[in-house]
Design goal:
The complex is a heterodimer of chains A (251) and B (278). By secondary structure, chain A is of the alpha/beta class. Chain A folds into 2 domains: 163 residues, P-loop containing nucleotide triphosphate hydrolases (Rossmann fold), CATH 3.40.50.300; 61 residues, no CATH class. Helices cover 35% and strands 24% of the residues of chain A. In chain A, the strands form 2 sheets. In chain A, strands 5-6-7-3-8-9 form a 6-stranded mixed beta sheet, sandwiched between helices. Chain B has 278 residues and is mainly α. Helices cover 77% and strands 0% of the residues of chain B. Chain B is built from 12 helices and no strands. In chain B, α4 crosses α12 and α9 packs across α10. The chains are: A alpha/beta (251), B mainly alpha (278).
Amino acid sequence: MCHIELSNYVKKVRDSFTKNSKFILNQINLKINYGDKVAIVGPSGAGKTTLLKAMVFSDPPSTGKILVNGKNPWAMSRSKRHGLRKQFFFVPQENPFPNRQSVYHAALGGLLPSMNALDSFINLFYPRHLNDISNVLSKFYIEDRVFERVDKLSGGEKRRISLSRAILSKASFWALDEPLSGLDTGLARDVMNILLQTSTDRSLTFVCSLHQVDIALGYFSRIIGIKEASIVFDLAPEQVTDETMRKVYER
Amino acid sequence: MKGKRMFVSLTKNHMVDRNLIIGLVLIVLFVPLFPASEFYPWRLFDDRNFDITLKFLSSFYPPKVDVEFLSIIFFGSLQTIAIATVGLVFALIIGVPASLLITNVLSFSKIEQEKTSFTGFVRYAIRLVLIMLRSIPEIVWALIFVRVVGLGPMAGILAIGLTYGGMLGKVYAEILESAAGIKHIQGMQIGYSRFQILAYVLIPQSSLEMISYTVYRWECAIRSTVIMGFVGAGGLGFQLESSLKMLQGGEVLTILIAFVVLVWLADQFSSLIRRSVR
């Protein structure tokens, strides 16, 4: 049994301009095992984000199937499926928190799925998880901003809050969309180290889309190349040659 | 896909076509509305009408400012504020739960792109109830309640509560819907509960809009107490009606000034709250 299995997975949308339906994911067959560290590479618009969203079963496939821990989430009742989502943490490219909010509340988003209603209500007024959150923020050098408003922070700092949420979450699967966007090269490597270290310590399954090919090859144990809605290759980093990479990125 | 690249030409641009058609349809629909509503603004400036208007307005001057009358106005204003505030609280009791029920941003079936659902039908039914509440003007509600609970502020409060409850429910739901998007879908994706989506994503996103709309409605409630005063539902409006009946222009002007002051206060109050939330 694997953590995620997509078989003949298809996602189509109707193009509002040409009125034709268009594939964003076309016949995807993919198995992600427990503890895998996977980087998805490919040009813009290839379907990386949609693939990540498919893995966290954010919306149903057009055709095809997804199995999560061997079970189809789209055959479950809605409340059961929603309960299962607490074990999956997706970090989108855009910052997922509102701007009129403190850094504390923005970071708390990582803990919310595992918090009950009373705890989440009290936290609106009283920071009960300040220690946990400060600890994680300090890994990303932003612990001194914890009570500041989010919109006072720079793009790179906001990015690090999004990633702190993943670290705070109790999920067993991370799907991070372009986690390093907006970070400078040095910081990007630091952040990637922390993410990989944490995911290894907790034996998490870690899937992320990346534009930085060198980081993908240097840090991940499995590289998936996608182009025009289909998987082009799925290899260990030492098997990936310049030639394979060029094929994915050429127009 | 190669060689099939699409060129966007202006002559074939659907967006331009569509906007042109919509624009033409709107103009064709709009023009007949003027004669239909008997809107002939130039009549305002006929010599005869101008004189009448001027005479009527000049009868208002000077405002009546003796202490006895001013104290009546003061307590009338207090009662007006009380009616508007209690009425609005009553409206919130109807509007807030209703907005949470009818908004589609807290509906997981909607976010998961399900086509039709039973909950969608329920939301629509509640929407219809809200339409009924607000489409009946508050003065009609007031007339009904004056029959039931007798003359006085109670009828005004109930009337404001029902009409404004219908409005608040609709507009809150729409404010929440315009605050929705990638951030709230993300909350759903990682397993937030509805309460968490509401309290940690949607409300921080839209609190300013909600506050300004609520205070604006309070301002409107103050104004509608005037009209309801005419049917005996208490407050400054009751004063205004008797002064108009007695043809006491000075009193009418004083009462109108009191209304301007009340609305100005509401405006100040609104910006005070908005500043503190910002």
